[in-house]
Amino acid sequence: MTAPAALPILKRCPVLSLDTAPPARAKGDFAVKDLKRMTLLLDFYGPLLTPRQQELMQAYYLEDLSLAEIAGEDGVSRQAVHDLIKRAETLLQEYEAKLGAVREYAERRDKLIRLEEALRRDDRESVSALLEELKAE
Asked: Mind listing the pLDDT tens digit for each residue in 20-75?
């Protein structure tokens, strides 16, 4: 599976590590944003969300607006915004669990980084092995 054509977030948020499951959060700890993971999930699966879910997720994760700011702009309660964002996060994580596009992207990117390093070292054996791995995908 290949990455979508336009991935503006990937340029700002390089992949360092992507666990298949989101990090554990303390109950009610909604302030801790897993920005890199969510922006990747939004890039890959955002079009599968409803327009309303996309709008809220972009405001929260990409524009870095608080729940209160979003609620104030939309004329709804903070709790309503929280619930909608949590529902959208869950959907994005379920899509990734089933489809694995972000995981595949991260694995391929890791191989390309290792390939680049092997080329710099002029390590032909490693280059050859990595090229074979990439071809096999």
From this structure: 444 444 334 443 448 888 999 999 999 999 999 999 999 999 999 999 999 999 99
Which residue type is seen at 79? Q
pTM above the 0.90 mark? no
The count of residues in the chain is 137
CA separation for the pair 125, 119 (Å, rounded): 10
Residues near 48 by Cβ (< 8 Å), separated by ≥ 6?
A: 91, 95
Q: Tell me how crowded residue 17 is: count the other CB atoms within 10 A of its CB.
A: 8
What is the rounded CA–CA span in Å between residue 103 and residue 115?
A: 18
Residues 57/42, Cβ–Cβ less than 8 Å: yes
Question: Rounded to whole angstroms, how far apart are CA atoms 107 and 20?
Answer: 12
What amino acid is encoded at 29 in this protein?
D
CA distance 48 to 91: 9
